[in-house]
Amino acid sequence: MSSSRPNILWTVSEDCPPRFGCYGDPLATTPHLDALAERGTLFTNAHSAAPVCAPSRFALLTGVPPESHGPAHHMRADARLPQWIRTYPELLRELGYYCTNNAKTDYNCDADPQAVWNDSSGSAHWRNRPDGAPFLAVFNYDPTHESAVFRHEEFTVDPAGIRLPAYLPDTPEIRGDFAHYYSHIAAMDAFVGRLLAELAEDGELDNTVVIHTSDHGGVNPRSKRWCYDEGLHVPLIVAAPERHAHRFPAPGTRVDAAVSTLRIPPTLVDLAGGTAPAHMRGESLARTSFDPAGELAFSMRNRMDERPDMIRTVRDARYRYIRNYAPHRPYGTHQAFAWLAAGYRSWEAEHLAGRLDDVQDAFWHEKPGVELYDCAADPDQVRNLAGDPAHAEAERRLDDALRAHVLAVHDNGFLPEGSPVEGYDASRADGAYPLARVLDIADAVGRRDPALIPRFTTALTDQDASVRRWGAVGLLALPAGALTAEAVAVLRTTAGDDPDPHVRIASAEAVGKHTDDAAAAALLAGLAAPGHPEGVRLEALDALTALGPTAAAPHRGVVAAAAEEPFEYLGNAARYLLLRIDGKYTPRTVVFDLEGLMARAAARRA
């Protein structure tokens, strides 16, 4: 192998925050990763493209922001890749590399792992390559997945020694979730250590660049799925052997600039001697200097399983800026899979019992339109500085950067799921998606200002369905009772007559919220019934849930039928609402279809 082209070993620990010794965690047992950081570069501010696996793994495979190519930004979906988008293993194979993936994929798109890789299986290994071929070997470590905290085994860390973030209550269940996870981090570190030992046995350690990261941040409440550092901050360590060390900062360097994991795919192509294609948005990390003052990491979320939402965020070395595009929805909307963790159930129980302070209780209430956190002074991100004159320059700078990014990547997240213009090519066709006009309306939603009623009602008459939908969302998000009679009349007409079902859903929910008109819930129940696309049914059921069990009760039959359907997310949402209608819900009620999950897993194994 030419010394100008290294082997590459990339280890990915699933759902794993940087609770390592080298990141300053005194409770962690991570000797192999700590040693890797000593001989490599540790990125202190690395952030994933999304706070959940499938959209993030789409970004890691393609180098494309998931929101740039709908529906890859949803959890979970099946984006259709244009033939011209080449994934990084395909590009490296064209450069002569033997590329293996062991073994998780979850790419949120139609990329065929057996076509993309030389080998994508549980036995994939660089040792299977032809003699002399350089290799790229990816090893995914699954036992750190969120499901690890669904069961508590023997603790290796004393739960009493855990520092809980300020937003969480101090309960045995929450302490147990945190403490239990350290044993999985230690096991993951040992796994990395075994791979490094195998490199040494094969005489390849001095030829191999080693990268370690995670697909996104941690597994505890208000981490995974949420656009705070706990959900997005990932470990990122890059260690190059001596012959390639000149391409990176000096061994032992800690880089404080914000970087995105979207930069890993172009880094791999660069190390292999290729040129990253234009669709890969990030710059290679194979460089000797970084700019903490200027570099930014962008992230996002949209639907998480059965719960629609939309959040965009940008991080620099000090601040995190967040825009909430569904401020009328609480953070803590019930999500069946997440609630399998004792921590979420305990937190909600404390909320319902009235035992939380204001910081801990904020999760169960509606969101502000904009959030800004000084992450150096407030690592738990609980003191919102948006609107604070002392931080106005940072807020303005990051708001401008986020808007420019949304436009540059042609963010598909403002389209309803299943839109005919969703997708990389379709959304960029001339006249298909007037994103700048949509963004002007959507950015106003978070202000929740009744003075904007004329602007939102005017948007309801636009020729473009996306503009109309965001006009309806703007009226929906206003405080209850804030609408004028004229605005309600326009919404009633739109809810009944608009040709786009997503516009009707937002309009009907707005009518129901602001007037208690029973016809609104009936319209939503009709759209949640069979005969409509899954995305429409799920969004309608979510809106019906938001109106509350009293409004939904006359339509119990529709909800009960949906609860029995095989579509996992619709079933989860319907079972939760059914429990609420019947007055049987408690935080400890298991809503998730565990039997269905086991059956699907068995089918995949077969």
The secondary structure category is alpha/beta
What is the C-alpha radius of gyration, as a whole number of Å? Answer: 24 Å
Spatial gap, N to C terminus: 39 Å
Number of strands: 13
Shape: globular
Task: Give the rounded overall mean pLDDT.
Answer: 96
Describe the protein in words.
The protein is built from 21 helices and 13 strands. The strands form two sheets. Strands 1, 2, 3, 4, 5, 6, 7, 8 and 9 form a nine-stranded mixed sheet that branches. The protein has a four-stranded antiparallel sheet with strand order 10-11-12-13, covered by helices on one side. A hairpin with a 3-residue loop joins strand 11 and strand 12. The model has no long low-confidence stretch (mean pLDDT 96). Helix 15 packs parallel to helix 17. The chain starts with 6 loop residues before the first strand and ends with a helix. The radius of gyration is 24 Å and the shape is globular. The chain has 606 residues and is of the alpha/beta class.
List the SSEs and their pairings.
Blueprint: E1 7-13, H1 31-38, E2 41-47, H2 53-62, H3 88-94, E3 98-102, H4 113-116, E4 119-120, E5 135-141, H5 172-201, E6 208-214, H6 229-232, E7 233-234, E8 236-239, E9 254-260, H7 264-271, E10 297-301, E11 311-315, E12 319-324, H8 342-352, H9 358-361, E13 370-374, H10 392-408, H11 435-445, H12 453-459, H13 465-477, H14 485-497, H15 501-515, H16 518-528, H17 534-547, H18 549-552, H19 556-563, H20 568-581, H21 594-605
Parallel strand pairs: 1-5, 1-6, 2-9, 3-4, 3-5
Antiparallel strand pairs: 2-7, 2-8, 6-8, 10-11, 11-12, 12-13
Helix pairs in contact: 5-8, 11-13, 12-13, 13-15, 14-15, 15-16, 15-17, 16-17, 17-20, 19-20
